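Weekly modeling sync, notes
Attendees: S.R. (lead), two postdocs, one rotation student

Agenda item 3: backlog of single-chain predictions. S.R. asked that every request posted to the team notebook include the full sequence so nobody has to chase files. The rotation student volunteered to paste the first one in as an example of the format we agreed on. Action items at the bottom.

Example entry:
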Amino acid sequence: MHCGELLGLGIPSLCRRVSLFSVQDQTGRTISPVCGMFVAKYPDFLAQVIFRDDSYALFDGAKDMFKYYFNLKKYNPSKELSDIAVIYVTDYYSMKPTDGRKAYYVFESNVFGPMGRELIPFEKEPEAKEFLVDHAGKKLIRFDGVTPELIKGLD
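Predicted structure, as returned to the notebook:
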């Protein structure tokens, strides 16, 4: 989807780098390019990749966002990783957007997302550590520590 498509719906333009949490999917028909699920049903786990040309992709969780990121040529052949302007994930406790590249992710907790086992994102490390203990998480990971193998292990 491209920001121009949103203008006709009266939705604030992503051309101004508005975060996904200010942009509502008013049609309710936006689907994850990875799993095909409607993302509007899962606002608590919403993730988004916004490209420099203001096109974007929405996801029903960080796990599918990472699948997309690691296989960008499969899901969006015209894009390169260098085309990505920003990545947003939903902080699990605050339910607010956080920079996906700066987030802390809890791996293999007892909290499941729309697609089952999920990476649970947090903006703040102390909250992520607390969640890790409270929800039997296996480890805390930063963006650069997430690998395709780790994501595959969640399926």
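Discussion: group reviewed the output briefly. The CA atoms of residues 39 and 60 lie 5 Å apart.
Action items: rotation student to repeat for the remaining queue; S.R. to check formatting next week.
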